[in-house]
Structures are given as structure tokens and as C-alpha cells.
Amino acid sequence: MSSLLPMTTRRLIIWFVFSSLVLAGCTARQTDRSIRVVRVKVVADPIWRGNDPLWRETARDLLRAASDYYEERFGIRLVRQATEAWRVEGTTTSSVTLMKSLKRSYPRAGGDQPHDVVIGLTQQPLNFYRGGRARADRLGNCTEGLGNYIVSHVGETFSHGDELNHDALALIHEVGHLLGAVHTDDPESVMHLNFDFRTGFDGPNRAIVMKNRLCPFAEADHAAGKREPRPGS
């Protein structure tokens, strides 16, 4: 019949309508998951500051790498509010000791404070078998709030855009704990107990982080009185 559209034209119309529906669905899925902003204060111990004149840049870029990782996978963005010098007396092999020092130096985070998390970066001679090389103050949850503190070792200069190194992956691991992720035996997961080079994120921990991603952060001065740092974080 002459009133019918040519076959090619009809196919083009069907393709256009189908493509529009797919794009609309993708847009809806993207806007459904809003970005969760986590406000971070980064502090550096005197040993690292003395050894690395670029410590401020490295601190900034390590946080940006961790932020990229969590934003891509979970819609969680780590935003640096401040970078400061952290006063630590003497030396220690224990991240437990450093965590206590960090909490004393910065007793308030979360709640109505201008930052949710304090990250202490160090070049103290931490021993993996005596207090760990990196540590989060607690496993976050929606009932008591997400965690507030991280102590992590920095071994080398790092620039944003470089391949992830062990320092960046250790920080990513500890951020996972703040959001509730636990250790796993998954050989590909960054949440594995040891600090071998792993960049994946296992399914069970992915579900935990997605469940907790919008939960409030604890008020650190109260949370600090409840819990001591966990060994082997």
C-alpha cells in the first residue's frame, strides 16, 4: 500500500525509539545513585615530612586515587578538607600506638564537624606482626555510625594518575573498613587480610559497602571512648 512507510524508514524509527528508551534508562540508573561526599582531613607525621619534601602532594594524590576507586565502584567521593602536620613524639613499630596518638591529636570528627574522617599518614617503622602496617579505628555500620580514623604507612612518592601502588591500596583497604567491609579470603580482593597487590573488590564486601554508603558517620569523641583499634586491620 502506498500509505505504508518504506521498510528502511520504519526500521530507523524503531531503532531511534529503542535507543531513546535505553538511554533514558541508563540516565535514570545514574541519577538514582547520588554521590556520597566524605569530608577528609589528612595529616602527616614528622618522619614522613622530614623525608619527603613533596609530602603534601603525595597525601593529596593518594586520597584522590582512593576517591577515584570508591567513586567509580560505589558513588563515594573522598573530599580533602585540610592537609596538616601531625605531631607525633618519638618512634613506634605499632599502628595501635599511632591510632591512639591520632585520636588524642584530633578528638573530633563526624557528626557536625567539618570533616568525617581523619587520615594519619606515617613513615614510622611499623611492623606487620606487631600492630599492623595500617589500621582503621572500627568497622563502620549504620547503627553506631561509620568509622572516623585511619593510620596508614607511606613508603614512596605517589602522583595521581600513576598505577595504584601498595600505599594507595592500603588506604583503599582501610577506607573499606570505615564503610563496614571485613577481611576476606578472596585472592583477588583488596580486602584480603595481607597487603599483597590486589585491586578487586569481592561481592560480599561490595554488598556491605553499598548498604552502608549513605549511613551517617559516628561522632568521634563518643566512638573513641567505646572501642580500641582492632589488631591486624
What's the gist of this structure?
This protein is α/β, with parallel strands linked by helices. The chain has a 5-stranded mixed beta sheet, with helices on both faces.
How does this structure look, described?
This protein is 40% helix and 14% strand. It has 233 residues and is α/β, with parallel strands linked by helices.
Number of helices: 7
> Could you say which structural class the secondary elements and strand pairing correspond to?
alpha/beta
Taking strands numbered 1, 2, ... along the chain, how are they ordered across the largest sheet? 2-1-3-5-4
Low-confidence segments? 1-5, 14-32, 227-232
Indicate the radius of gyration in whole angstroms.
22 Å
Helix content: 25-40%
What letter string, H or E per element, gives the SSE order?
HEHHEHEEEHHH
Distance between the termini: 74 Å
Strand content: 5-15%
Q: Let me know the average pLDDT.
A: 85
Largest sheet: 5 strands, mixed
By DSSP, the count of extended strands is 5
Global morphology: globular
Question: SSE layout and pairings?
Answer:
Blueprint: H1 7-32, E1 36-44, H2 46-51, H3 55-74, E2 76-85, H4 95-105, E3 117-122, E4 134-136, E5 149-153, H5 166-178, H6 203-212, H7 220-226
Parallel strand pairs: 1-2, 1-3, 3-5
Antiparallel strand pairs: 4-5
Helix pairs in contact: 3-5
